Amino acid sequence: MTDPLRLAVFLHLPSGGGIRVAGQMIGELSRTFSITVHQPEDSSLLDVPGEVDLRVWPFPAGKRLSGARRLMAPLTLRSRLQAFDRLCRSVAREIDSGADAVLVHNSMLVAAPPILRYLKTPSVYFCYEYPRHIYEPDLIQRVSGRSARLLLAPLRRMEKKMDLLAVSSAGRIVTFSNWMGRLVKNIYGRTPEIIHPGVDLRTFHPVPSAKGSGFVLSVGALWPFKGHEMAVNSVAILPEAERPALVIVADRGLQPYRETLDMLARQKGVDLCIREKISDRELRGLYSAALAVLCCQHKEPYGLVPLEAMACGTPVVAVSEGGFTDNIIDGRTGLLVERDPVRMAGALSSLMSEGDLRRRLITEGLDFVSTARRIDSAGARLADIIADSIVSQHIP
User: Fold this and answer.
1) Which of 29, 119, 289, 391, CA to CA, is 20 to 30 A from 256?
2) Of 232, 371, 225, nearest to 298 (Cα)?
3) Which domains does the chain have, with CATH numbers?
4) Sequence-ordered list of residues with C-beta below 8 angstroms from that of 73, at least 6 positions apart, any chain
5) Contact 121/8 with Cβ under 8 angstroms?
């Protein structure tokens, strides 16, 4: 019996859907490869359902900016990127000394981490996101005010260059939706392979005892581009007598934006509850208890939220854009609407009043996640791509 191939994984992710996908995929890959995960110390903790070795690299420059350091952000962020580049060089040297292949995930500092430039080992880059603040400045802004944006312009140029160089150095590129596939092609001039991640059905499944509560759910970080304001406005359109409460669940976010949502809800007469940093068990209970899950994110690259909702037996109403269109078949696994609170309110009202529609969406949604969005199938596909990258490297 031959020893398994040695796979190194590099990731630098915050909390949220990305780190969840990474953990699930690495768990599946551990069936095929001997895996060592390398991550800077400021990366979110990885929960892997399998045996892997974990190497946490010291990275004091990755600490969140606060106080005087935040005031010096234009200089501090530049030096942090330079420190990250040096760290990536060191990690690449260690990986090259013993791995057969490398799976590189996004970095929270710069989308494609510079480790891709320094690796000699065959690499596969799993592109979750491009630098959205650079390519979608009207939607995502790090700072407000023209003078602040001008001050950060050199930093953006540095980030863009680092990202482009890293992607151009990747052996293979994988992403998780047709939407992202088109963007990767447009931005980087490379055609990625598509793998649709699934949902851990051991974690997300219906909780029958939780059904029947009178609220709808919106899940995502407390950032404007996650669309929670649209959720508030959509619920507010429903007649007061049948208006459900709205629960927002967030893993992280901005306190001023939370205050904005609270104020908007009061103005609109919406009963709003915001829950932060809850456990998967609590989230499963909320998914299962909700009348519906509203997905109003702007151009979401993939979106695990609707899949998790389907797995818990709860209907989804989502904006018809981004990666949502890969997973939501309108009228079958959920409802897709234009980015319009009136249309979302109408779809939500239909779900609340039409029992046949609700039952169909629940049944087909459960079937979809259990057959077409299986973690093991996605993991096997990724394993094949990684193995093929090793073979291709050695073909003369």
Assistant:
1) 289
2) 225
3) 6-198+374-394 (3.40.50.2000), 208-371 (3.40.50.2000)
4) 65, 143, 152
5) yes
Q: Which of 15, 99, 73, 27 is nearest to 379 (CA)?
A: 27
Helix, strand, coil percentages, rounded to 5, for the chain: 50, 15, 35
Angle between helical axes of 73-96 and 153-169 (0-180°, round to 10): 10
Q: How far apart are CA 366 and CA 1, in angstroms?
A: 40
Q: How far apart are CA 377 and CA 374, in angstroms?
A: 5
Overall residue count recorded for the chain in this entry: 396
Token couple for 355: 């029992």
Q: CA neighbours within 13 Å on the CB side: how many for 58? A: 1
CA 136 – CA 298 distance, rounded (Å): 11
Q: In terms of DSSP H, where are the helices of the chain?
A: 17-29, 67-71, 73-96, 115-118, 132-135, 146-151, 153-169, 178-188, 228-237, 255-268, 280-289, 305-311, 324-327, 341-353, 355-371, 375-394
Q: Compute the distance between CA of residue 114 and CA of residue 91 in angstroms, rounded to an integer.
A: 11
With CA atoms as reference, report the closest residue to 83 among 130, 38, 128, 40.
40
Per DSSP, the chain holds a count of helices (H) and strands (E) of 16, 13
For residues 187 and 206, give the distance between their C-alpha atoms in angstroms, rounded to a whole number: 40
Per-residue pLDDT of the chain (396 residues; tens, 9 = 90+): 578 899 999 999 998 888 989 999 999 999 999 999 999 999 988 877 668 999 999 999 887 655 545 545 556 788 899 999 999 999 999 999 999 999 999 999 999 999 999 999 999 999 999 999 899 988 877 656 666 667 678 888 999 999 999 999 999 999 999 999 999 999 999 999 999 999 999 999 999 876 667 899 999 999 999 999 999 999 999 999 999 999 999 999 889 999 999 999 999 999 999 999 999 999 999 999 999 999 999 999 999 999 999 999 999 999 999 999 999 999 999 999 999 999 999 999 999 999 999 999 999 999 999 999 999 999 999 999 999 998 876 554
Amino acid at 342: V
Contact 282, 206 (CB under 8 A): no
CA distance 220 to 312: 17
